[in-house]
Amino acid sequence: MGRGGAPISVLVVEDEVLISNLVADALSASGFTVHEVTTAGEALQYIGSGAEIDVLFTDVNLPGGMNGAELASRVRKLRPEMPIVYASGRYKLSEIAPLVPRSLFMAKPYDPNEVCALLTRLTGATS
Questions:
Q1: Higher pLDDT, 81 or 125
Q2: Which is it for the CA torsion 17, 20, 21, 22, positive or negative?
Q3: Burial zone of 89 (CB within 10 Å; 0-12 exposed, 13-18 middle, 19+ buried)
Q4: What is the pLDDT of residues 66-88, one digit of tens each?
Q5: 3-state class of 53 per DSSP?
Q6: Which are the contacts of 111, defined by CB distance < 8 A and separation ≥ 6?
Q7: Residue whose C-alpha is closest to residue 59's, from 90, 18, 97, 102
């Protein structure tokens, strides 16, 4: 559970609609609240709106001129304590290191249920 017993809120930043939907569906089925966007710019706009987000799950390779690593760096300045999970099928961890503090990397392809388990551990969520 997140703030005051509310579900953990996850912002999923993924430009591949099928992947985004798979992850969002798995997270929702596991009790997370999910908001989906396709670009880093949309993610920053959503976070900047004051939306309650507990964790950021972002692809590294994104359209629109800003990648997931740059997004994570900017989000870290706005929300220093927010856990961040990077995901990529194109880049290896060593190619995007160093990661921002309080973040993890998942290689694609991944099982959406593994994403749920990771975010549950990372946020301390309880069922």
A1: 81
A2: positive
A3: middle
A4: 999 999 999 999 999 999 999 98
A5: coil
A6: none
A7: 90
DSSP tally for the chain: helices H, then strands E: 5, 5
List the structure tokens of 27.
């997270």
Q: Is the peptide bond before 98 cis (omega within 30 degrees of 0)?
A: yes
Tokens 């160093």 correspond to: 98
Q: How many residues does the structure list for the chain? A: 127
Judging by beta carbons within 10 Å of its beta carbon (0-12, 13-18, 19+), is residue 6 exposed, middle or buried? exposed
* Cα–Cα–Cα angle for 116, 29, 35, rounded to 5 degrees: 75
Query: Which of 41, 63, 46 minimizes the C-alpha distance to 11?
Result: 46
If you search the block for the tokens 């001129």, which residue do you land on?
65
pLDDT at 98 over 60: yes
Q: Give, in order, the Cα–Cα distances in Å from 3 to each of 40, 61, 79.
A: 25, 31, 15
